[in-house]
Amino acid sequence: MWQPNIDTISGPRYQAIAQALALDVQAGRLKPGDKLPTHRDLAYHLHVTVGTVTRAYAEAQRQGLLVGEVGRGTFIAQRNSTDVYFQPVPPPAGMIDMSLNYPPPEPLAEAALRASLEELSQRNDLSPFLPYQNYRGFESHRASFAGWIARQHRLLVDPQRMTITGGGQHAISAAMAAVAEPGDVVLSAALTWTGIRAIAEMMQVQLRGLAVDGEGVMPEAFEVACRSFSPKALYLVPTLQNPTGAIMSENRRRALAHIAERHNVAIVEDDIYGFLAPNAPAPIASIAPEQTLYVGSLSKSLAPALRIGFLVAPERFQQRILASIRATTWMTPPLMAEIAMHWIEAGRADQIAENRRREAARRQALARDILGLLAGDAARLGYHLWMHVPAPWRAVDFVAEARQRGVMIAPTEVFAVGRRPEMEAIRVCLGSPDSIDQVRQGLLVLRDLARQPTDTRYLAVV
């Protein structure tokens, strides 16, 4: 019978039980399909009321950890491994969430929104924002976003090849729908953004991971995969790769672009973090524009809730992109695009982006100061860092113990495509905590934990 130790977990007892359950799922001590004790049995063991256990199970079920079957009992849910680590809701009281790669708070964004809404309220030409509109979005919005991409991402794009989307993830989904069919092979880095795995699963395409080095995907691995699997696309984050934080050199970008052209493999280039690295090489789309579907978004640079992304693609993909937009959202709300354009044209967007760059650099500097060599050697520009945990820690156990101490992070496993890489590392997100003081507290917990020997309860018997 599952018998958690909740004595070291602060907060209400029902939350402590739910948190202990989440930790044991993360560490693999509870597996999908495992049956949990009855409410009465667990209450007796933990010396709490049956009502406390009922509330704890309800909280765990809300998080997707449990399923209840009438007449049979309560079981650990079958679920995607990433769901255990990423809960896009406010973290439990007292927890510092460094698992989600959010941008840091930016007061100017709220002021910009207020100014835009005030200006819109004085206009007498709002009727175009109410009916159905062109799938691609307004021409004025696409022209404004093209200017933004040129300034912030160092890429000249044709607005006629741009489709406005409901955020970057929507743009990537539309790009994937344009280049691949169910059963096709799509390539990515062996460690990559978790969302592409979810998209690949939804679209029933085969996602295969490629070997990486300090810059990202290795050309030799891409070449071999092109000859072996006849892939339809390669998904890349060349600037501030998620999760490793790597930035590809221009030579690496050219090498991958030339291989893609030679084998006619589309490149889906995710440049969502490009604005954070103004001195990085230009996007691959500038090297191979007819081979690249370029994805951008305002979520990390301006505000996630605007839900504005953009997809710039070669002409041969346009009809399938529009079919995907029509089948999913029909169009991106033009009112949100109008607000984003207002920020851009008024100069507020550039200031917000600059503020975000400064805050990211400030938090990265703090991380280097506290963690030292543990912070790794990736670029000191992004919202996250890739921290290698010292032996004999396993990443998943380090994450579980960090959560016990009030810090939420994510291990190597959730970013791996295919076979798990032989490394023990965690992604630490510096942008999601509300304040620099919370960042400092979280980093100190991780540093102190890394300096301590592994807790014997995490040592596996093999």
TrEMBL record:
Residue intervals of the HTH gntR-type domain: 11-79
SMART domains (UniProt xref): HTH_GNTR
Segments forming a coiled coil: none
DNA-binding recorded as keyword: yes
One Gene Ontology molecular-function label: DNA binding
InterPro entries, per the entry: Aminotransferase_I/II_large, HTH_trans_reg/aminotransferase, PyrdxlP-dep_Trfase, PyrdxlP-dep_Trfase_major, PyrdxlP-dep_Trfase_small, Tscrpt_reg_HTH_GntR, WH-like_DNA-bd_sf, WH_DNA-bd_sf
Record key words, sorted: DNA-binding, Pyridoxal phosphate, Transcription, Transcription regulation
Record's keyword annotation contains Transcription: yes
Domain of life: Bacteria
Family per record: In the C-terminal section; belongs to the class-I pyridoxal-phosphate-dependent aminotransferase family.
Name under which the protein is recorded: HTH gntR-type domain-containing protein
